[in-house]
UniProtKB/TrEMBL annotation:
Transmembrane segments: 12-34, 40-62, 87-107, 127-145, 152-173, 193-217, 224-245, 282-309, 321-340, 346-368, 380-405
UniProt subcellular location: Cell inner membrane
Family recorded in the similarity comment: Belongs to the amino acid/polyamine transporter 2 family. Mtr/TnaB/TyrP permease subfamily.
Function: Involved in transporting aromatic amino acids across the cytoplasmic membrane.
InterPro entries assigned: Amino_acid_transport_2 (IPR018227), Trp_tyr_transpt (IPR013059)
Bilayer topology annotation: Multi-pass membrane protein
Source domain of life: Bacteria
Record protein name field: Aromatic amino acid permease
Gene3D superfamilies named in the record: Amino acid/polyamine transporter I (1.20.1740.10)
Keywords: Amino-acid transport, Cell inner membrane, Cell membrane, Membrane, Transmembrane, Transmembrane helix, Transport
Keyword Hydrolase attached: no
Keyword S-adenosyl-L-methionine tagged: no
Length: 412
């Protein structure tokens, strides 16, 4: 009877999956068809599948390791104990850099969007005021805890799926299959562009900062956590595939260089799609979709940053402690976005490299060390090796791109 009551009280896998999917799938998905245009659909499909599998494995490796520690123990605690203080310091800097830069980017990019919407609704607000209002709202939700984040994530993800269907469902009936599977034009090849796409795919499945919160949320229930990770990342993969089929199946590959030269952003891509979308309220629906995409990723990223800072400082979980952690999580990126609204462009290029470290390399190393220390830790040398190889390949791709040794499709 007691076991039955306890099982009934377990949170649904759906809530955790929504946190993962909401974190992973954001406004950044609009860049995928643009950066994948050179490699085109076949390679894009393969790279997404490989990246999804590798990032899911790295998340599961971290989860297995974390279950051998007290509830709430995060990256810093595990890394310091298993790999030493130097690795912990390096890993901590990489997490703070990536999550901090993303938080800064979401505040900087979303402020003008929300200002425009509020002004149209008759609420006069400056860009700075919109940024502050949005940040305070998100901070309040994160301060309340994982349950509040998961509820809003669920609403945002479901809204995004519905809007995607409304916006692009008609495109599926217009997809040009020969264009998707056609060979490269004479004198060209798809494969030279493949390696340069890989870091973008890795960044498209970054959710590892949320695993600590899920372990606490599910009270260390390994099967529930694993299913939430699998379902959340699988739903993200499905949304990505749906998106690239709709875009690549309707926009010829030859049209993407012009999109790249126009900035490769949402506006440039949607301008190319406009002739194929038979929806009179396209502009309004795109605006609504962008709102949901940004707020979901904003919540997911900042929840992960909040958990890391809380674990690092060890302030506890009282309302006062959570308030202090929230201030450290949100105030620095907010202040930076107010004084340097466009400064993240130079730094964001390095985020992928640091993400490879803490979301791929470190989870594999932690699992390897945990196998040596804990007798109950599952032996998974093959999985660890595969994840490490994926990480090394991504670092190599990033360095080659940074050195300018990889071709860029559509660049002048």
């Amino acid at each position: 009877m007691t076991d039955t009551l306890m099982s009934r009280r377990q949170p649904s896998v759906w809530w955790g999956a929504m946190i993962i999917c909401g974190t992973v799938v954001g406004a950044g998905m609009f860049t995928l068809p643009v950066v994948m245009a050179g490699a085109w659909f076949g390679w894009a499909l393969l790279l997404l599948l490989v990246s999804w599998g590798a990032m899911l494995l790295s998340g599961l490796l971290f989860m297995r390791t974390s279950l051998h520690y007290p509830m709430g123990a995060g990256y810093d605690t595990l890394t310091k104990d298993l790999l030493g203080r130097r690795w912990a310091a390096l890993n901590g800097l990489s997490i703070l850099f990536v999550l901090g830069i993303l938080t800064y980017a979401y505040i900087s990019a979303s402020g003008p969007v929300y200002q425009h919407s509020l002004n149209e609704a008759g609420i006069p607000l400056s860009t700075a005021g919109a940024k502050i209002t949005l940040t305070v709202g998100v901070a309040a939700v994160v301060w309340l805890g994982t349950q509040g984040v998961s509820r809003i994530m669920t609403f945002c993800v479901l809204a995004k799926i519905l809007l995607l269907i409304l916006l692009f469902g008609g495109l599926l009936t217009q997809v040009n299959l020969p264009s998707l599977v056609s060979p490269a034009p004479a004198g060209e090849s798809y494969w030279p562009y493949v390696l340069g796409v890989l870091p973008f795919c890795l960044a498209s499945f970054g959710y590892h900062g949320n695993i600590t919160g899920l372990v606490s949320y599910y009270n260390g229930n390994k099967p529930l956590i694993a299913r939430a990770l699998f379902l959340g990342t699988l739903l993200s993969l499905a949304l990505y595939l749906f998106w690239i089929i709709c875009t690549m199946g309707n926009i010829p590959r030859a049209s993407f260089p012009a999109i790249v030269q126009q900035g490769g952003d949402i506006a440039a891509l949607m301008a190319a799609l406009r002739d194929h979308l038979h929806v009179s309220a396209l502009a309004f629906m795109m605006s609504v979709f962008s709102h949901f995409a940004v707020i979901a990723s904003f919540l997911g990223v900042t929840a992960g940053l909040f958990d890391f800072i809380s674990d690092r400082l060890g302030w506890g979980n009282s309302p006062t402690a959570r308030f202090k952690t929230a201030c450290l999580t949100f105030l620095p990126p907010l202040i930076a976005s107010l004084f340097w609204p466009h400064g993240f462009v130079a730094a964001i290029g390095f985020a992928g490299l640091f993400a490879t470290l803490w979301a791929v390399i470190v989870p594999a190393l932690l699992a390897w060390k945990a196998q040596q220390r804990f007798a109950t830790m599952p032996r998974s040398l093959l999985l660890i090796t595969l994840v490490m190889l994926f990480g090394v390949l991504n670092i190599s791709a990033w360095l080659l791109s940074w050195l300018g040794w990889l071709p860029t499709f559509g660049s002048a």
